[in-house]
């Protein structure tokens, strides 16, 4: 995987399935969330991202039909492998049945059996476009980083030329990152870092120093750092710089010296355009001082995230 520095990628979590944990879904989509409508929106966002120079797209088996939507777009637009790099993830399975009122939307299993099955499904859709395959939401507690059968499958995949990585979740992201680095296996780590949740920062710096490419996810905290939920201090700082809160929040992530790719999770082309202005925002010491107080205790942040509804 090419290790771009201070670039933005596009994540398809918000557009591959009808329900997601992001503020303002009704405003984005209303009730028009059938498969055809969601596919059309996904292609519009992908077209806009490509036109703007975005060359990394993040999907997962659990993102509804995101891999299928992406595969169709790549074929329809005649995009050759390598022109757009694609990272996907295994471990969660979408079980929402395209229903807004599903009792569960995804189910987690980090076993080697699921890895083999989901890798086959991903390759059937994305083929040679797949650049990176990641464990989805690894934790130390899950035991996946000590599962020799899983690690062996990932080593074999890496030997075939596909980069391997992991995404992290929860208040102990730092411990997971350090454990992953210690294995010597992984090419990338994808973690939540934003102005509210900074606890993984030092571990990500260590991972970067060890040679892993760092991908930042949830840079706008599931909408809490956008106009729909931004704290007053962020709103003020963004207004003073003539940008939207989401752009300033993403600029903060881009400014981390260890950050490689920072993902936009835009659900619409308008959101994507706002997110991408982060590339032109100068993050300075004044902004750092003004917004340092937004940081939450990790346990508090993840508790609040867990309380967000699927909408």
TrEMBL record:
Pfam families: Aldo_ket_red. This is Predicted oxidoreductase. Transmembrane segments: none annotated. Gene3D superfamilies: NADP-dependent oxidoreductase domain. Residues 42-291 form the NADP-dependent oxidoreductase domain. It comes from the Bacteria.
